[in-house]
Amino acid sequence: MTGIQRCIVALAVLILAGCGPKDEQLVDVKAAAERQTRGELLLDVREADDYKEFHIPNTMNIPYGHLALRMAELEPYKGKPVMVIDHSGLRAPRAMEQLQKAGFTQVFVVKGGIAEWKAAGLPLEKLDMQLQPQ
Known about the structure:
Elements: H1 3-17, E1 26-27, H2 29-37, E2 41-44, H3 48-53, E3 60-61, E4 82-85, H4 92-101, E5 107-110, H5 113-119
Parallel strand pairs: 1-5, 2-3, 2-4, 4-5
């Protein structure tokens, strides 16, 4: 790798490091679980199939790619704390930015995502997709 290539890589790393959420916008999984029990919204931005496989109880699922189209569903939570979670923490910061641009002022990212939630042994459930006979 040439000196110029090293400089470009180093610059890219510095730029990307400054793009994530600030420390005060990060919530660890245990704090998120406790805040959720107090009624704060936990928004899961994973794809619907991933959500159906397993998810945190009492969460709202709006896949990241549909967030702009479904922003009206979140309107009742404007001005209230909204915690965003994804699989491992890559999409949640981008979802946080979209929410902030839409006027949400109390948006937080759950650090480590649902992978960290699962590793901490916090509750998860599976969506039962079986239809009941009539």
